[in-house]
Amino acid sequence: MKTNNKVKLIVISLSLIFGSAGVNAQPMPHIAQPGENWVLQTERSDEFDSKDAEKWNFQTENYGVWSWKDENASVSEGILKLTTKRETHLRTFWDGCNKTKVPNYRLFYTSGVAKSRATGSYGYYEARIKGADKFPGVSPAFWMYSKIDRTLTNEGDVQYSEIDVVELTQKQTLQESDHDLHNIVIKDGAPKWMRPGSSPETNHNGYHLPFDPSDGFHTYGVNVTKDDITWYVDNVQVGYKKNLYWHREMNLTLSQGLRTPHTQWKCNQFYPSDNQSAQGFPTSMEVDYVRTWLKQ
Question: Which PANTHER family does the record associate with it (predicted)?
Fold first, then answer.
């Protein structure tokens, strides 16, 4: 699968080079229209021929129940593998219900992440992903998110932007995928979290996959413009929203998050649940490539 994919990319690149006199030729995303010029953004693209720590942060900041470990991200034979393991450990945890940091908080799972060091906003983003073999319990994800800027306090200011290209296997049905939006915006003088559940008309897209996402590789993409956000699975449009708040610079991220039955949601965050089972762990998602294009 990987070899055929790379050969295809090389063939496309050569045909474009010779077909356009070699002027700024690039392989194009499937949404490209005749006459358009899309440029591959190499700092946010990877064929995963090596584990490139200059391009990706594999030990990014922990958040909630997500404990990231560099060793849980590996690259072999052109595939990035992000693994979730059952590992009891202690670290500082933000307790959102009590608004306090708790030192030496006991957590039970670690996972892998790849967060781009480069940032961007608009463009077409695509990854070819094979989901984890465990269901339920983990959610392979391809997403992008900004920093939270609490200094932005004017009405309508956007403190945070997040675009989920895809989150797999986080619902009760194996084939349900989410293509969602999250943001913090100043409304009525105060920051307001807008989540897919609380603002479905602007923030949620659900899709029933016509396949088992753990059974093979499939492409998941999103096109982000200043006006619109459009999601694709295997080149088929599966979601659309107007771009109301998602204009900030964001890091591109591949990760495998923990989900029910090993987590519980309260106070706008995930907490560990009483289910600390090792059954089904370790489990991994695999990424064949990630590519980012910008239309010139």
Answer: GLYCOSIDE HYDROLASE FAMILY 16 PROTEIN, GLYCOSYL HYDROLASE-RELATED
Sorted by sequence, the CB contacts under 8 Å of residue 216 that are 6+ apart come out as: 1, 130
Question: What token pair was written down for 226?
Answer: 């200043």
Q: Say if CB 142 and CB 165 are below 8 A apart.
A: yes
> What residues form DSSP beta bridges with 190?
187
* 3-state DSSP of 49-118: CCCCCCCEECCCCCECCECECHHHEEEECCEEEEEEEEEEEEEEEEECCCCEEEEEEEEEEEECEEEEEE
Nearest Cα neighbor of 289 from 239, 235, 218 is 218
What are the residues facing 111 on neighbouring strands?
68
Whole-prediction pTM value? 0.91
Catalytic residue positions?
162, 164, 167
Q: What are phi and psi of 64, to 5 degrees?
A: 60, -130
Token pair listed for 23: 């002027």
Per-residue pLDDT tens for 214-248?
Answer: 999 999 999 999 999 999 999 999 999 999 999 99
Cα separation of 56 and 253, whole Å?
9
**Phi, psi for 247 (deg, rounded to 5):** -120, 0
Q: On the CB side of 81, how many CA atoms lie within 13 Å of its CA?
A: 15
The percent of the chain in helix, strand and coil, each rounded to the nearest 5, is 10, 50, 40
CB contact at 8 A, 260 and 151: no
